[in-house]
Specification:
Elements (H helix, E strand, L loop, with lengths): L15 H11 L3 H10 L7 H17 L3 H14 L3 H13 L3 H12 L6 H13 L3 H14 L6 H11 L3 H14 L4 H13 L3 H14 L4 H13 L3 H14 L4 H13 L3 H19 L1
Helix pairs in contact: 1-2, 1-3, 2-3, 3-4, 3-5, 4-5, 5-6, 6-7, 7-8, 8-9, 9-10, 10-11, 11-12, 11-13, 12-13, 13-14, 13-15, 14-15, 15-16
Length: 289
């Protein structure tokens, strides 16, 4: 669940039931908040009170894992006050309940765009992919390209989906289409380098990843990928330099520490390699907690 913090703000003159409902949410007790607010419905007489109450209820239902019940409350809250925060939570609820039309309408409000804009479909596809609704995401992203073939990010996100599924040729083709529209997209360059690297095409991947670094020198992923490429092509000294750069920007990256350990092993630095592997294992253990 991707809920935004601070969605519901209690009005100064809100009835005690609404204030108490918000307090229960802050305590992580959404079911108790729902029971309280549903029982207090008859006490809400002003439109502002009703709007505040349905916002709290909508969020409570979402936090309780009851997205289908959250949708109508969030829709009512959005109708009362076109809040981008409410709209984004409604979009999440609509993804969970497989209502793509509602997702698009909500994201149009969230981003201040016409509901028919191709960019709204791209935003919908991205949200669906983040929430592991990959088939829905594919439909939205391809729909965006049908509506506007030059819309940005759609090919990149479709390429990301293909890469996730191991369809490397498709990922490369789609990512190159994105770069044809925007050659200075550092994330697309990193993605292309990743896909090429997975095919062991390091001669092609290396210059692509270097361009990504030129555009965004503080992002660790292209350094990690270059380190893997240099290690795979028996250039351990260069690989070690890339791993060090990655860790300077992302010191808690478990995979970077593990890769650094492999590189140090190759360089014959056994003690340093052992320390790198120990750090990677510690970070993995932290992630399990």
């Amino acid at each position: 669940m991707l809920l935004i913090g601070g969605l519901v703000r209690v009005e100064a003159q809100a009835p005690p039931s609404i204030a108490e409902g918000r307090r229960l949410l802050d305590l992580g007790q959404p079911e108790q908040a729902i029971a309280l607010l549903e029982s207090a419905r008859a006490s809400w007489t002003e439109a502002s009170e009703q709007g505040e109450a349905v916002r709290v209820l909508g969020l409570a239902y979402m936090l309780a894992g009851r997205a289908a019940e959250a949708v109508p409350h969030l829709q009512a809250a959005l109708a009362a006050n076109a809040s981008p925060d409410v709209a984004h939570v409604l979009a999440q609820a609509a993804v969970q309940t497989r209502q793509p039309d509602t997702v698009r309408l909500a994201l149009a409000v969230a981003f201040g765009l016409p509901s028919t804009a191709a960019e709204v479909q791209v935003a919908a596809g991205q949200l669906m992919a983040r929430m592991d609704m990959h088939e829905m995401a594919d439909v939205e992203l391809r729909g965006a390209l049908t509506r506007a073939p030059t819309v940005l990010q759609a090919n990149y996100l479709l390429g990301q989906q293909a890469l996730f599924r191991g369809r490397l040729d498709e990922a490369i083709d789609l990512t190159r289409r994105e770069l044809a529209l925007n050659p200075l997209d550092s994330m697309a360059l990193t993605q292309l380098g990743d896909a090429l690297g997975r095919q062991a095409r390091w001669d092609e991947a290396a210059p692509v990843l270097q361009r990504s670094i030129w555009l965004n020198p503080y992002y660790s992923a292209p350094y990690i990928l270059l380190a893997r490429g240099y290690l795979a092509t028996s250039q351990a000294d260069l690989a070690e330099g890339m791993a060090q750069r990655a860790l300077s920007f992302d010191p808690n990256n478990r995979s970077a520490h593990y890769l650094h350990g492999q590189i140090l092993q190759r360089l014959g630095r056994a003690d340093a390699a052992k320390a790198a592997f120990a750090r990677a294992e510690a970070l993995q253990d932290q992630g399990r907690r």
